[in-house]
Structure formats: structure tokens, C-alpha cells
Design brief:
By secondary structure, the protein is an alpha+beta fold. It has four helices and twelve strands; from the N terminus they run αβββαββααβββββββ. The chain is globular.
């Protein structure tokens, strides 16, 4: 049993170790050169009259980026000339603030230098209907005073919480969204996409079956899975590797 456990651990960590060893995820941080500029994935709010909802994810800062991503929701009601961004930021808890951040930052800005991937999008009436649901879910997030990198609750726990409240997004969070399976004291819940179900024990072990996500197994908070519809596999650290769609968008490995 010990040998089996050690082999499993090696397999789970192979992806993150490869990313670190190859330099795909930078570990040295030069704060003076961190880039937060937009990448051009969001429609210009000043010239786009229709409502827009977009969900992004980007690798987190430093060595932790070999394991996971940071997600956020960007919304623009019809006629609005700026976006509102909903996300969870851990350091806010250390200052006694709610971890839920609501800001007007660039919707598609780089996350401390990391290129974001577009995971889901709604436009027009569908987006207009979804925006109040996102705001309500963010306001009702049950872990607003808590933050744990592993196994949660963290920014990916927040993304999964909001996604369940807005199933029309059909949000397939990447396997690198560590913390998405954290259900608190709960064991059974809808999949974040709303197209299936999952069971999870405190975010460290579980199983998810859904039309959008496919089959995912959570082992120690790391996800291994198969997405039959896109002929893709999901690997810890590496993310989603597929043959169809535009899932392999830089290191974030999201489905757009």
C-alpha cells in the first residue's frame, strides 16, 4: 500500500514538476516588471452596446502556478461603458476584509504577468439575464471570511459556487482550478457546469460526472479526468490536453 501511495503521488506531481523544471512557469518574481495589461479578449465596453459576461482564468503567481489557476468573472450590462470584475483574492482575508473583490479592473488583464484564457462567454439577452445572478451569487458566497490555498475555499471555490448559480454559462473549470471541488461540509453537489453531479470529501477526494466536464477524479485536490466529447484528458499541473476545440490556450488550459 505504501508503494502504491508513493507511485500515485509521483504521478500526481509529475505535471507540476515538469512545468517548474522546464521553466514554463516562472518562479522568480520581478515586481517592477509585472504586467497587468489587457490582452484583447474582451470587447471594448465603449463600443459594444450589448451585455457581455466572460469568465477567465490565468496561472497564479510564482511556483504555485505549476499547480493552479486564478479565475474571475467580468460582466458588462447593456449600455455600460465599463466592466465589473468579481473574484476572490486571498490577502483580503488577512486584513479582515471579505475575500470577494468587486472592481472595475481590466476584464482581460494579465494576472501578474500570466496570460488569461477565456473559459466561457455570454452575449446579449443571455448575458443580461445572467449578470444579476452572478452579482447575487457573489454576495452570497459562504466563505467570504475564509481563504485557504489548499484544499479550499479559494478563488476556484468561488468560481464553482458562482457557476452553479448560473448554469447557462456551462462553465467547465480547468483541472488546474484547485479548490473547485471544495464543498465545505457538503458531500454532494451539482457540477459547476450544471450538466452533471459530483461528490467530494473536503475537496481532497471525489468524483465528478457531467456532460460538459466529462469524468474527473479528485485525488488530494488534484484532478485527473477524461472529456469524451472533446477527446481530451485532464492532468494535474498540465491541465487539459485535447484534440478538438481551442482548449490549450497557453498555460491556463481552459476551454473557450
Amino acid at each position: 500500500m505504501l508503494l502504491a501511495f508513493l507511485l500515485t503521488l509521483v504521478l500526481l506531481l509529475a505535471g507540476p514538476v515538469f512545468l517548474l523544471a522546464s521553466g514554463a512557469v516562472p518562479t522568480a518574481v520581478d515586481w517592477s516588471r509585472i504586467d497587468r495589461s489587457p490582452v484583447g479578449l474582451a470587447p471594448d465596453a465603449t463600443t459594444t452596446p450589448e451585455a457581455v459576461v466572460q469568465v477567465y482564468a490565468a496561472r497564479v503567481l510564482s511556483w504555485r502556478g505549476a499547480f493552479g489557476v486564478h479565475p474571475w468573472f467580468a460582466v458588462k450590462p447593456a449600455g455600460a461603458r465599463s466592466y465589473t470584475v468579481y473574484e476572490v483574492i486571498g490577502w483580503r482575508a488577512y486584513r479582515g476584509l471579505s475575500v470577494v473583490s468587486v472592481s472595475n479592473r481590466d476584464p482581460d488583464g494579465r494576472w501578474f504577468g500570466a496570460q488569461p484564457a477565456l473559459l466561457a462567454e455570454l452575449r446579449g439577452p443571455a448575458a443580461e439575464a445572467a449578470i444579476p445572478k452572478i452579482a447575487k451569487a457573489a454576495a452570497g458566497y459562504p466563505y467570504a471570511g475564509e481563504y485557504r490555498v489548499w484544499p479550499g475555499p479559494n478563488s476556484n471555490t468561488f468560481a464553482a459556487w458562482v457557476a452553479r448559480a448560473v448554469p447557462e454559462l456551462r462553465l467547465d473549470l480547468p483541472s488546474t482550478a484547485l479548490g473547485k471541488d471544495f464543498l465545505g461540509r457538503g458531500v454532494f453537489a451539482r457540477a459547476p457546469s450544471g450538466t452533471g453531479w459530483q461528490i467530494s470529501l473536503f475537496g481532497v477526494a471525489g468524483l465528478l460526472l457531467a456532460l460538459e466536464e466529462g469524468v474527473e477524479v479528485n485525488v488530494l485536490g488534484l484532478t485527473i479526468g477524461i472529456d469524451p466529447l472533446d477527446l481530451a484528458v485532464k492532468l494535474p499541473g498540465i491541465g487539459r490536453v485535447g484534440w478538438f476545440g481551442s482548449g490549450n490556450i497557453d498555460a491556463a488550459q481552459g476551454k473557450s
